[in-house]
Design a protein that fits this description.
heterodimer; A: about 270 residues; mainly beta; 13-stranded mixed β-sheet; four-stranded mixed β-sheet; about 35% strand; B: about 450 residues; alpha/beta; nine-stranded mixed β-sheet; globular
Amino acid sequence: METVTLTMKNQPKLYLEADNISPDKFAGKKASEIAALHAYEGRDQTTLSKYFDVAGEAGATAADTRIVVKGDVSRVKYIGMKMTAGEVVVENSPDMYTGAWMQGGKLLVKGNVDAFAGIGMKGGEFVIEGNAGNYLGAAYRGDWRGMQGGLIRVKGDAGSDIGYFMNGGTIVVHGNTDVHVGTHMEGGKIIIKGNAPSKVGGQMVGGEIYVYGTIDVMMPGFKYVHDEELEVDGESGKFSLFHGDTGERHPKRKGQIVYGKLYLKI
Amino acid sequence: MSQSVTDVICPFCGTLCDDLEVIVSDDGKKIEDIYNACAIGAEKFMHAQAAGRVKRPRMQQPDGSYKEVSYDEAVEYTAQMLHKARKPLMYGWSSTSCEAQSVGHEIAEKVGAIVDNTATVCHGTTLIAVQDVGIPSCTLGEIKNRADRIIFWGCNPCHAHPRHQSRYSIFPRGYFTNKGHKNRKVVVVDPRDSDTAKMADYHFKVEQGRDYELLSAFRVALRNEPLPEKVAGIPREKIIEAADMLKSGRFGIIFFGMGVTQSLSKNHNIDNAIMLTKDLNEFTKFSIMAMRGHYNVTGSGQVLGWQFGYPFAVDLSRGFARYNPGESTSNDLLRRGEVDAVFVLGSDPGAHFPISSVKKISQLPSVCVDPHITPTSEISKLHVPVAFVGVEVGGNCYRMDNVPIEARKVVDPPEGMLTDVEFLSRVNSRLEKLSGGK
């Protein structure tokens, strides 16, 4: 695997839209070609070389390409957007849309990510060592298909509206979240190892939410079913199962109503 | 002898009353009296006559004082500012005509601006929810003639839309509601004892920030599923009783305002309220409507909608329209420092935005186009006074139920004063030259 290293040298005055920082766009290119790739600051089309030092060269395919982004990227959006393979490592905290519409490969952020990270994600592995912002793994505005596959793991806390319209894949948050977890969720799995204040699973149709800590205020449309022993994220524990949201429409499968499942750790 | 102008449109709130009578002096220059308008609407007309009205553009000097400049200089400053900026914000648009909005959007497309209207701090969340789940709505006329179940959720029309209740929602005698308010059951959901709540048959004092739970509880009740003993501070029995009352109506309407759109859960509250409306349609006819504030904020959404496809927070910086509230909304842009110039027309962010955003406006090159002196005009580098739409110039406006109504001109503007459309058109043609006709 070949490695390309991008090091921030000139901070953008406004915010930089760098949707070309992805193994798919870098694949088969030399450092000079990568430096000439487009980026946008406001209405101006510029190149990556204006902001980054580019070192190393990419592999022949996306899968053979590893990108390391160094320096302060807090004003850079869209890192790893639509990537399908390969690896991206961001050593600090990028801005919005990190790993948006990601389809495959590995994306590691060692700092925090801002809002809309991993929206509309379809596959791959996205690890955030710090905290995540709002709308993590959510749907893009107006889309009824949110996250559909892949794994997002947040080692810190996450913001509100995570897994909005989610219908596949897994989100694991090791810390706490803000309000609205899995709103309109139709499938997939959200595991919160900390606490979630309220509005967990509102308008939920299907899918699973696990909360290890506490929920301050439960949604009224969740009814207790039973306790069960489960293995979640490699560890086993005892959970109370709730079905919901009973205020929402629910499909039937084999004559049985399919509910969203909310597991609270006992 | 004075003359009377009838059927005047009131350019204040989204109710857009169309039955005002304005008494004008014989020479057609002075407004003497206004009939039928509410106190706020009448004041809007009288304000056009106020002594000390700014009649020429003013440029702020380094010491904070103002220097009068000509409209030509104002056009030049505005065009240069927008031409130089790499990501200007063009905010406001809710207190002007659709014609002016359209010219403004032409400018925005030329300079790669972000166009945002007052919905961003108001019913923008409603627009997000409408995009997510659709909206079953109707016109105010249908409500007047048919509605017998009225819900005011998180709004206080007694003070914000003073004539709404007498013209459309509670009191009027309509075709199928010939007993007026005796035909109607009124529900108010508000944590406060507002004046609207005093008129309600049912007042639900919902716990603050728990509207989403209460809306869900209504939906659960409609499906005959079990409910917890209390939801959002309201006992289960009350919720079930109210749900039955709503089901038994012939035509119901949910009006909602800032109490739900800008409190915890924001767009999700509206999303759930729209879904509740859909659920109620299983039993009877139900509609839902946003209580829009500015008289033409609906129009701004309409014009942006047909020109760019999105109703607010439209980012044109890359030459095509993008939209993502949370990123392309004015307060996020200002707070995060994403824009490098601010143009405000027909709104007052200085009074309504958080102080962190207002500070940013004061630090950036900024132009405020407004007939009044406002907090925004005071912090902007350039203040351009214009004629009042609906008083001194006509134009198209949209009522809160998306019905277009042509506002009328009542008196002439002060000598030599430009209208919004004239000023924007001059900026637009100056920009045309600056960009070399590109």
